[in-house]
Amino acid sequence: MLSGLLKKDGVAYFIVGCMTTLVNFIIFHVVDQGLLMAGLSGSLSYKAAYGIAFLGAVIFAYWTNKIWVFRNFNFSHSYLLREFSAFLAVRLLSGFASFALMVLLVDFIGLAHNPAWLSTTFINLIFNYVASKFWIFRKKGSGEKEIMKKTEGPEGMGCSEEKESLVDMGQGR
Questions:
Q1: What percent of the chain has pLDDT over 90?
Q2: How many Cα neighbours within 13 Å face the side chain of 68?
Q3: Can you give the C-alpha Rg of the chain in angstroms?
């Protein structure tokens, strides 16, 4: 059962990850080239482009993962704030690590900007999937089950069923 879920979520995550990677690369390439054409040095252009592309990709990735990969449709403001904060924290951690690796690959090893970006993106993709699947958008076992609670109907006329969710909004899904 777990392997089936990993395969299903994994395939969707891979597709969304490819789309996010494309969004990231397009932003990165356009901004990097634009800054180079504007006269910014190559050692600075890719760093600025990386940060701008990272922000655009994180916003895109959050919404596509939330809705299409992990099928989480809780849109309450407090829930979104907690969930996006966790998502952003993980992405910042992995983003800083990827940025440091990219600087190492470009400035110290001499790899070109695009191959360095591709290398760091691949590592980042794996780390972010694991964090999203098992922490940010995780599905809690028994905590998500809905229980049926019998309640009195109007004027004591029979019983009606009322669903009561046990999802702890602070834990995310």
A1: 52
A2: 16
A3: 21
Q: Which CA distances in Å does 29 have to 38, 43, 47?
A: 14, 14, 11
Give the list of residues 6+ apart from residue 161 with CB closer than 8 angstroms, or none.
148, 149, 150, 151
Q: Is 98 helix (H, G, I), strand (E, B) or coil?
A: helix
Please write the tens of the pLDDT for every residue from 51-73: 999 899 999 999 999 999 989 99
Q: How far apart are CA 164 and CA 157, in angstroms?
A: 21
The residue that leads in pLDDT, 144 or 13, is 13
Contact 123, 105 (CB under 8 A): no
The token duo for 122 is: 């691949």
Backbone angles phi, psi at 161, to 5 degrees: -100, 135
